[in-house]
Amino acid sequence: MTYIVNENCIKCKFTDCVEVCPVDCFYEGENMLVIHPDECIDCGVCEPECPVDAIKPDTEPDIDKWLEVNREYAEKWPNITQKKASPKDADNYREEAGKFDKYFSDTPGDGD
Length: 112
Known about the structure:
Number of domains: 1
CATH class: Alpha Beta
Strand content: 5-15%
Largest sheet: 2 strands, antiparallel
Radius of gyration: 12 Å
Number of strands: 4
CATH topology: Alpha-Beta Plaits
């Protein structure tokens, strides 16, 4: 089992999860984070830290798409190990559905 980040993170990108990860398996895109599934040790400490419920175990139904998104972009984006300020307009996107099709960016973030 591993944990993944889903579309709830897009345009919100809260980094509370990064701060508690003992193995630094988060990677930063322009407007979301992903977890490297081969680096995650399945400890689950990140899941309750996410204020938008974007972190899920890969045992959830219909999670395959997100497992692949996390795997692909963890290989391309820079590692992030420290908490950063979330986007100023993050609260505007908390409840929005369908964010992947509307807003996903494959542009890397800054990392650490």
